[in-house]
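Standup notes
- DV: blocked on the single-chain target, sequence here:
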Amino acid sequence: MKDYYEIWVYLSASPLFGLTLTLVCYLIALKIYRKGGGNPLLTPVATSIVMIILVLTLMDIPYYSYFSGAQFIHFLLGPATVALAIPLFFQLKKLKTVWLPMSVALICGITVAGFSAYFIAQALGASHETILSLIPKSVTAPVAMGISEQIGGLPTLTAVFVVITGVLGAIMGVWLFKIFKITDDDIKGVAMGVTAHGLGTATSLQINQQMGAFAGLAMALSASVSAFILPFVLSLVSP
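- DV (later): unblocked, structure below
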């Protein structure tokens, strides 16, 4: 028994542990998602996050020990985002016909997200610093943290809001499409990319390639445009 404990202590402190845990949890979550018939509540990313948190909490493993291995997957986020250009290339003909409405949707989506976050948080009595951290919640994490710092928010708090927004967007987006009977994959992809960034894009890719391609494009463009629009939004609402 002592030997097994020593092996566990060694593995839990090894970078291999974080990498293995992430992959195993995601594969289990993906299987659960497929068994559940694609139920949005069982979105693999959200489910695997919960599983990883439970394991780290129950085993009393510090986050930095876990991330020393998980950072290898984190590094692949950049190449994976660039690789979204491949499915988008096959949708290039379609993209040429929808670039104008998509551009308008991007600007409207980013502006509404910023305004709604500000006024709802203010109505609920959130502190000014929290409000500023909440405004860029619909942008992919690295850009959102930069915007938050620029406008006076807390980048770490913004990162938490970004993850929560992504998870909720990935879960609720699929249901909202069904409720409002939205069937066009281009529209659904843009909506998911603008509101739920990376997690929404991952969910879109699991549904189909076309939806995932437009979600990836919308995520990238909204990140760029947000850096200009959100500070302007703040200047309009700030006293």
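- Follow-up: The chain has a mean pLDDT of 83.
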